[in-house]
């Protein structure tokens, strides 16, 4: 394991789930953290917790869909934070589970604007600095949904297939530089993901994970940490990480 102590990592979607777990695990590894999300109060609560352990934190209240806001937030990063070593493009969501021909166009736009365009904006604004400083690692959080489309998953699955394609393209375009690109593709992880998908219908959200042992956000953060702590000549290009109770996008083992 190579130390990442003292490096600067920017985590999008740090207010919940996988992003918050990455923040905690990176903090324990001695990383300086830029935490980004829309819900400021959540970020502040996490920051307070991590600062008590000695972690240096900078908060960005940011909607990744807002290209102008992303550009100005990143350009305005004060000196100690402006050289980002690790970018975790994690912010993302699903909305609804509908047949494509019956789906909500605004839901599609929200997913594509967040999962694809938001990830692109962060990448476009931060990777040039990584190339310039001769050091950097981009970790994109994709999904098994980017490998296998499931019924009614259509646009969410497309957004995650795009994350895989973008990760592959970025890796190709960075060939010849030391900057690494990893895509981590989890299966079912119990977070607020399904609450958001079903717009606060917690009973329905719970059924997604009922009777099986899903991944925890910490399981995914652990994989992310593994990827960024390999020696500089090793690029873990793609990781598909599933619960033992899951063998495909729709193939799960439920006890009840
Ligand atoms: P959560 O809902 O718990 O977290 C999602 C995070 O994304 C929140 O911090 C949220 O912050 C942030 N976010 C959403 N929209 C925006 C936006 N427009 N601008 C900035 N931040 C935003 O879900 P997960 O932790 O599960 O999801 C994290 C990633 O993991 C997503 O990309 C998801 O697609 C992916 N994933 C999840 C799986 C799962 O089963 N849970 C499996 C595979 C992949 P805020 O609302 O405060 O802005
Ligand atoms: C989230 C996993 O299967 O709920 O990307 O779409 S799934």
Automatic annotation (TrEMBL):
Statement: the UniProt record of this protein carries the keyword Protease: no
Annotated InterPro entries: NAD(P)-bd_dom_sf, SDR_fam
Gene3D superfamilies reported for this sequence: NAD(P)-binding Rossmann-like Domain (3.40.50.720)
SUPFAM superfamilies: NAD(P)-binding Rossmann-fold domains
Keywords, ordered alphabetically: Oxidoreductase
One Pfam family this sequence matches: adh_short
Family per similarity comment: Belongs to the short-chain dehydrogenases/reductases (SDR) family.
Name of the featured protein: Short-chain dehydrogenase
Organism whose genome encodes this protein: uncultured Synechococcales cyanobacterium
